Amino acid sequence: GNSVTQMEGPVTLSEEAFLTINCTYTATGYPSLFWYVQYPGEGLQLLLKATKADDKGSNKGFEATYRKETTSFHLEKGSVQVSDSAVYFCALSYNTDKLIFGTGTRLQVFP
Amino acid sequence: GAVVSQHPSRVICKSGTSVKIECRSLDFQATTMFWYRQFPKQSLMLMATSNEGSKATYEQGVEKDKFLINHASLTLSTLTVTSAHPEDSSFYICSAPYQGVKDTQYFGPGTRLTVL
Asked: Is residue B111's pLDDT more than 90?
């Protein structure tokens, strides 16, 4: 079946460090891929998305590239801030708005 | 951006009682809403799709009689956990797709249910 696998957290970084959160997926066909972020006490928010192979989604300094050959959608940011501390979820969907989520990765950034 | 609210944000109840959780789209209409359940350190699991004016569609393994869903209007869906037991304790989250914009959903902040 379809599934999403994320690296386990927490990921702990100092401010301005480089961030990578790995995400791989198992799916048939060509799903859309997403990164959602959940700040403390808030609902999930869409961070970025990519709908086809080789697309790059980007937002707020975060980037992820849809790699069909490696079935990956790793999230990266060149310089994290304390305000980036949150839980990050990788997800996929097939034109139905139903989302299949990874387990989430908690990011903690310290000054 | 669009807002989805949930009420209550947290609820504690005794075993055997029923609990209703509301999900509202505050500034847009939603003919469809989704209900997810999130266990500690686990991903969000889709429970059911709530459809305005028709029956909800449940995912495999989700008990329809345990988790009653009613989509009463274009801005409100409710999830009722009937005869709740401690194993139903969890974090319940709803979402609503934003009509007309592909791959765009808005999530509620979630409801923490604790069954004693």
From this structure: yes
Q: Give residues 47 to 66 of A whose Cβ lies within 8 Å of B.
A: 49, 51
Contact A44 B95 (CB under 8 A): yes
Q: Name residue, tokens 């707020």.
A: A60
Phi and psi at B92, nearest 5°, equal -110, 130
Q: What confidence tens digit (pLDDT) does each residue in B26-51 have? A: 989 999 999 999 987 778 899 999 99
Give how far Cα A88 sits from Cα of A15, A26, A94, Å: 17, 19, 20
Query: What's at B91, amino acid-wise?
Result: F
Count the alpha carbons within 13 Å of A61 in the hemisphere toward its beta carbon: 12
d(CA B5, CA A104): 22
Question: Measured between alpha carbons, how far is B77 from B36 in angstroms, rounded to an integer?
Answer: 13
Cβ contact A43:B106 at 8 Å:
yes
Q: Which residue of A has its CA nearest to B43?
A: A103
Give the confidence band of B1 by pLDDT, cuts at 50, 70, 90. Answer: low
